[in-house]
Sequence to fold (142 residues):
Amino acid sequence: MIQIAELVVLLVIAFEDMKSMSVSSWKVGLLAVISIVGAVFGIVMGSCDIQYAAVALLPGVVLIVLYYVSGKQIGLGDGLVTLCMGPAFGLENVVLGMVTAFFASGLFSIVMIAVLKSKGKKRYPFIPFIAAGMAVAEIAKI
Fold:
């Protein structure tokens, strides 16, 4: 149930990112609250522990570090959204979702460059790819 709520909010954030190339901080906050509730519920029910939830934050931390290291070429919102998904989905699903997102984003970029003769400097939102990748990760889990 927590993962479905996360995916719904993630989808809303993805549409916002496509429309304005930015995300509302309150929506990211809502994603964080849902994730924290999911992690606390998992800890109380015994399905995970604090270490599991903490390690699941690593993909988001990596993207946030890349935001600063790359001179802000990667959006901070991408890292924050990924950080918020960690405790709710777990490290394995977030990594699978991110690998899928990077792969889909790469294919999209190749198509945009090859077919539409798009220049390499054009920027596209990444959160829709994250949303698609996380959906694929959840379907793959079933």
